[in-house]
Amino acid sequence: MALINKETMERFKQKANDLVNRTLDQHINLAVTGLSRSGKTAFITSLVNQLVNENSQSQLDFFNPIHQGRFIAAKRVPQKHLHIARFDYEKAMQAFTQELPEWPEPTQGISELRLAIRYQPQDSLLKYATDTATLYVDITDYPGEWLLDLPLLNQTYEQWSEATAQLLMTPARKDKAQEFIAKVAQLDPFEKVDEEKLAKLSAQYTELLMYFRHQLGLSVIQPGRFILPGELAGAPILQFFPFTHFASIDIDAYQNAGDDTLIGMLRARYIEYKEHVVKRFYKQHFVNFDRQIILADCLTPLNAGPDSFNDLQQALNLIMASFDYGKSDLLTRLFSPKIDKLLFAATKADHVTPEQHQHLTALLNQLVHQTKHQLTFDEINMATLAIASVKATKAGKGKHQGRDIPVIQGRTLADNKVVTLFPGAVPQLIPNHSYWQDKSFNYIAFAPLETVSIHQALPHLRMDQVLEFLLGDKIK
Ligand SMILES: Nc1nc2c(ncn2[C@@H]2O[C@H](COP(=O)(O)OP(=O)(O)OP(=O)(O)O)[C@@H](O)[C@H]2O)c(=O)[nH]1
Ligand SMILES: [Mg+2]
Fold it and tell me: What is the pLDDT, as a whole number, of residue 324?
């Protein structure tokens, strides 16, 4: 019998590996979203950081491929879509690894990165045929505000203007919106359009939205692109505003108004916006997502008060509509549903003491499931977790009036002082009137805690559970 030498054997083995790997290699499109400042950049940076530095003390015990010793390595490889911005992992890591660590800067629009995760398959049959398999994960970061625009697709310009006029008159927005509403009241909708005047009022409406989001902590912002224009900044397609006085308009005249009148141009731009901005996002991007994580910062609104909190609830309700394929023939017309796993994560959980994490999860669960959408999600596997992508506090015990109480310690973001505190209890249910009256919750923003090297894993809370839910079943 001819002996097969070692080299030939190796070549055989390599060939067999290549063949099996070709069929074993898998691919997944993972989308990460959340309203601005909800923690998307920190989350993606931490996720990549944990995986690429797996063997340097990362804490990922609940991620089965690691727990079972089958995880080999992960690395960043060139992304799939070259026309989409690259997620700037290096820049974010630089912020975390400098001498006095800082949070990464706010980002705009959509970005992407691809990870290749090499692992040993669990299946015993395959195990003999191949040494490794690879899971490619395309991660997309996109603003949650873009999902707030879905209802626009079902509304005419007139309906949207009326709905927005009502929203602007609610107590949370009324005071600040008055000036804008008064200016619109003075317009003659049928006059020949003056583009400059239109641009100025659009800018004023955009500033109003910015103020609602960043000063008042409100979440329902429409059109969502106005505060995150990306490459569309300054483009006429983002220059329109709700005509808040439809009641005073002759409806026949409105219907016959040409595009060269003020109201006609507002309407035309609104229609263009829906076609070329809103629909395009769903058709070009959303259609490709396999799995989605929605990040929600519940703590900042809890601190800001009832208006901000109720607005978050409303915004989550609007966001959920994008995953409610069962109910919306609009969505099924735009794409055939694909997302099979949806994870809601309450971010920045390190701002509260550990025994409050369960409450935080329960609260987010309430916010999500109280919506009318819950019944039609049978096809999607959903979960809720309280996480910290990058843990900025240490938990311990303190004394208060002779009793042991749980506390956290961190460096304040505002003046870099080390503080130890009990920030308050997180309500398990949507807070009622008396909760807001007591106003017992005291949120302080913290700076990242430790300087880590670029090759070290960042401290976190439950990122391993996130990985297990989103990727675990694909690494078997
Ligand atoms: N303590 C703590 N703070 C966090 C964590 N993640 C985010 N933050 C805080 O939240 C801020 C916003 O986080 P980002 O990751 O930039 O949020 P984003 O969703 O990417 O925000 P935009 O790019 O503006 O849309 C950070 O600057 C931190 O102050 C976390 O895990 N723990
Ligand atoms: Mg960001």
Answer: 78
